[in-house]
Specification:
The complex is a heterodimer of chains A (501) and B (329).
Chain A: H1 2-14, H2 17-35, H3 41-48, H4 57-82, H5 91-102, H6 106-130, H7 132-139, H8 144-160, H9 166-180, E1 183-184, E2 191-192, H10 206-224, H11 245-264, H12 270-284, H13 297-312, H14 314-320, H15 326-337, H16 346-349, H17 351-380, H18 387-406, H19 409-427, H20 432-455, H21 462-465, H22 467-500
Antiparallel strand pairs in A: 1-2
Helix pairs in contact in A: 1-17, 2-3, 2-4, 2-17, 3-4, 3-15, 4-5, 4-6, 4-13, 4-15, 4-17, 5-6, 5-13, 6-11, 6-13, 6-17, 7-14, 8-12, 8-20, 8-22, 9-20, 10-18, 10-19, 10-20, 11-12, 11-13, 12-13, 18-19
Chain B: H1 2-35, E1 41-45, H2 52-68, E2 72-76, H3 83-90, E3 98-104, H4 106-114, E4 125-141, H5 149-158, E5 164-167, H6 173-185, E6 190-193, H7 197-205, E7 211-215, H8 220-224, E8 228-233, E9 246-247, E10 258-266, H9 271-286, H10 288-296, E11 301-304, H11 306-326
Parallel strand pairs in B: 1-2, 1-3, 5-6, 5-7, 8-9
Antiparallel strand pairs in B: 3-10, 4-7, 4-8, 4-10, 4-11
Classes of the chains: A mainly alpha (501), B alpha/beta (329).
């Protein structure tokens, strides 16, 4: 109850005209960096930090936090319309979102995503208000073995979304794992696969890989096709048709839960939240074959999950002073720069600050909903621009986006190399989503495994001695067993059918 | 005879050119000295915006503007653990308008560890000033039974391979400190690598590790909130931030572990320009504005002028090279 009163005071502070303006600027910039491929929330927040020097801490953090959760809304738009994920958490949205756009249902996809994002975002902020400190303590129980198991679980879910051919999916996933090996070995510090290039020491940047593999290669394959015929249908309605409401709403609620829980756990990422939500929706669907062909749950669920992740990820930052993701780490830097020390004392030492920021997040989410529902049809017109005008523009934005991350021309070259690989993968029908997700998971799996083994008394056994990890790994086992059983059964049935014939 | 004349002629010619050259140079530099700096100076930071080094750079340069009369433009060039930015600084144009932050021992370790894959060496930099010396710290959970580093060493002696310690990963200065600790005290510890202090603190508070090694400025908020305790510091003397924490040396571990953050120019830059900058940096360091900001940011300050900074870097470089020769990491 006390928190509620404090929150009301926070609203008072957040609703002053200047703070309201900074909230609007923040979410608008966030939406923009989300839309622009390559410019993710990390780059967006980092670039605007210098602009906040002259501001007080409250408007500064209101604005920077706005960029962070605003980007989660914006990322959807390019994924759906042109199959280029605006940021990492939207990779999975491409699968069904772009199909929907091709069928002329792009409006519904964007509408469902905006509504889902709003619900996910608001629920996460509610958690931040009332449960923050308690939840953060609980999340501390996750150690390296738990992270390892959760990542393996994620990898297994990935197998479920690989596409039609399991073999091709495996090939993609393994290439992703191999790419994740580039850089320093976490156990010994030895450098691997640098080919003499010091730029590779910290591994391949996610943005470089995503833009090359998805963005540029998409443009390459599209330009081969007849450019006049490939235009998407005009987007009519933003509100999904009535029969899609119920499945969307259920997906949104489940996505909120998944994103909220994962956001609390340091070391996870919004991409994993989106991935888990997608596979859950696919598993629960009556007709899983719709997925990949424009299922609305495949957009609503993941898009909600990445938003509630963004809100929940602020809980460990505010309450423990621990950043859970790269963007949050940049935000932590901004806190420190403005003389605030995130951590348990923040609630006691700077209550005015914290509640004003929390209140501004409610307001920011409302602003984003307004910006996205009526305006998404405006954004959607991007897809109606003739490709010969749109493509050079996207190419330019992609290149500038890559360059802006580390200001390195070398990485622009690497992006072009990945574009060539992505193009060939499309030709050979190798799913690039599997590659990129296994790349993200692969890095973390290796690192957490090294950590687990270096702290364990009895090797891998520790993974089964710790309850959370043991449960997750058992689930993995069950999923695998069921998978094998159905494959074998199908094969036997087929054989039987052949013999009968 | 003829040859002698020619030789004499050539010598005379060389002398005149040399004199002319000197004169010209002197004039040019005097001119530059008066007007320098004429335009904003770029400062390369080899780490991302918002990181620890970036914050130090921006706060000192903001104050230094008062004394140079010109602004500074921070250019973040992150990557390869700082090596990208350090390489850029080493190869920057020497016209006096590009300087950069250097972090010791990070800047020293990469060329030693990675050999000729790294395209810079210590001689490529002219140190201007050091601002921050952030000592290493050993940190335990607030309710841990360890009170001093000595307790930890004794426990590790009695229970080999039991103590779980979180550190920044192989090849870091922390790894070197731990290696020396193990060798000199004859103990064995389980070393768990982490990426950054945040995840380390999470693991420590969640009791997934027993102890961690980090830097003084990075654990202050959690220390203030009494979630963790700093039990030992790697500086020569105890520091004001953690008055109760004894030094490594007091605990019988003869080792100094300090992360330094300072500013340097590419070598070959005009010494007069360097002097202008060095004076401005010293004044900025003493300025109450910077001192106030540094206090708010929990930065452990330690000023070193160009000469002292250079000597310190050379001393550390020699030490690490020796260690690497003994046993590469």
């Amino acid at each position: 109850m006390e928190n509620l009163l404090l929150l009301l005071h926070g609203f008072e502070a957040a609703l002053t005209p200047s703070n309201l303006l900074f909230c609007l600027i923040g979410v608008a910039v966030g939406q923009l960096v989300g839309v622009l491929p390559g410019l993710g929330p990390v780059a967006g927040t980092a670039m605007l930090i210098p602009l906040t020097y002259s501001l007080g801490p409250v408007p500064a953090i209101i604005m920077l936090a706005g960029i962070f959760y605003g980007a989660m809304y914006g990322g959807t738009i390019t994924s759906v319309l042109i199959n280029v994920p605006g940021e990492g958490a939207s990779v999975i949205t491409c699968i069904d979102g772009h199909q929907m756009a091709k069928q002329g249902r792009g409006g519904s996809a964007l509408g469902a995503a905006a509504i889902g994002s709003f619900i996910g975002g608001v629920v996460a902020v509610l958690c931040l208000t009332f449960l923050g400190p308690t939840l953060a303590e609980y999340a501390l129980r996750f150690g390296p073995p738990e992270f390892f198991s959760i990542m393996v679980f994620g990898l297994l879910l990935l197998v479920g979304l690989i596409g039609k051919s399991v073999v091709k999916g495996m090939i993609s996933a393994i290439i992703g794992m191999l790419l994740a090996l580039v850089g320093q070995d976490p156990a010994t510090g030895a450098d691997r696969f640098l080919f003499g290039q010091i730029e590779l020491l910290e591994g391949i940047d996610f943005v470089v890989l995503a833009i090359g593999l998805f963005g540029l290669s998409e443009i390459l394959t599209n330009t081969e096709e007849n450019m006049d015929l490939n235009k998407p249908e005009k987007i009519s309605k933003m509100i999904p048709p009535r029969y899609e409401w119920k499945p969307s709403l259920m997906a949104i609620l489940r996505g909120t839960g998944i994103g909220g829980v994962l956001g609390l756990i340091p070391g996870t990422s919004a991409s994993i939240a989106a991935l888990m939500s997608y596979s859950l929706e696919k598993k629960l669907a009556k007709d899983p074959s719709r997925f990949g062909k424009g299922a609305i749950e495949g957009v609503a669920g993941p898009e909600t999950a990445n938003n509630s992740y963004a809100g929940a990820a602020l809980i460990p930052l505010f309450t423990l002073g621990i950043p859970t993701s790269p963007t949050i780490a940049v935000l932590l830097g901004a806190f420190i720069m403005h003389g605030l020390t995130p951590g348990p004392l923040l609630y006691q030492k700077n209550p005015d600050f914290i509640w004003a920021v929390v209140a501004s997040m409610f307001i920011g989410n409302v602003l984003l909903l307004i910006m996205n529902l009526p305006m998404a049809s405006w954004w959607a017109r991007i897809a109606l621009v003739p490709y010969k005008l749109l493509f050079p523009l996207i190419l330019l934005i992609c290149m500038v986006g890559v360059y802006s991350v580390n200001r390195s021309l070398w990485e622009v070259g690497l992006t072009i190399a990945f574009a060539a690989i992505g193009y060939l993968m499309k030709k050979w029908k190798l799913p690039s989503a599997a590659l990129i997700l296994s790349f993200v998971l692969g890095k973390n799996i290796e690192f957490t495994l090294v950590q687990t083994l270096s702290m364990s008394d009895n090797g891998l056994l520790v993974l089964f001695q710790r309850p959370i990890s043991a449960v997750l790994l058992t689930l993995c086992g069950i999923i695998l067993a069921v998978g094998f059983y159905t494959t074998i059964k199908n094969k036997r049935d087929n054989l039987a059918a052949d013999e009968a014939a | 005879m003829k040859r002698k004349i020619v030789a004499g002629f050539v010598a005379a010619l060389m002398l005149t050119t040399l004199a002319a050259g000197c004169g010209g140079k002197k004039q040019a530099s005097e001119k530059a000295g008066e007007a320098y700096p004429k335009k904003p100076i770029t400062a390369i930071v080899a780490f991302p915006a918002g990181g620890g080094t970036d914050i130090v750079a921006r706060s000192i340069l903001k104050t230094a503007e008062k004394y140079t009369g010109q602004g500074f433009v921070v250019d973040n060039k992150p990557g390869a653990g700082g090596a990208i930015g350090f390489t850029a600084l080493a190869g920057a144009t020497k016209d006096g308008y590009t300087i950069g932050m250097i972090n010791a021992p990070t800047v020293l370790l990469s060329p030693i560890q990675l050999g000729n894959k790294v395209k810079y060496k210590l001689d490529d930099f002219v140190p201007i000033a050091n601002f921050v010396s952030d000592p290493g710290v050993f940190v335990v959970p607030a309710d841990s039974s360890f009170k001093t580093l000595k307790d930890v060493i004794e426990f590790a002696k009695a229970n080999p391979n039991q103590l779980k310690l979180g550190y920044g990963g192989p090849g870091t200065s922390e790894a070197l400190a731990i290696r020396t600790l193990e060798q000199t005290q004859g103990i064995k510890i389980k070393k768990v690598p982490f990426e950054g202090t945040g995840p380390q603190l999470t693991a420590l508070m969640g009791k997934n590790i027993d102890i961690m090694i980090s830097n003084a400025s990075e654990v202050y908020p959690q220390h203030e909130a009494k979630q963790i305790r700093v039990i030992s510091v790697g500086s020569e003397k105890r520091i004001a931030m953690y008055p109760d924490a004894s030094t490594y040396k007091e605990n019988g571990f003869d080792y100094v572990q300090v992360a330094m953050r300072g500013i340097a120019a590419p070598s070959g830059m005009d010494p007069n320009q360097i002097k202008v900058l060095a004076d401005a940096m010293k004044k900025a360091y003493d300025d109450p504005e910077f001192q106030k900001n540094a206090k708010a940011l929990n930065l452990p300050l330690a000023y070193l002028g160009p000469e002292d900074f250079k000597k310190e870097l050379q001393k550390q470089d020699a030490f690490f090279r020796e260690e690497f020769k003994k046993n590469p990491w």
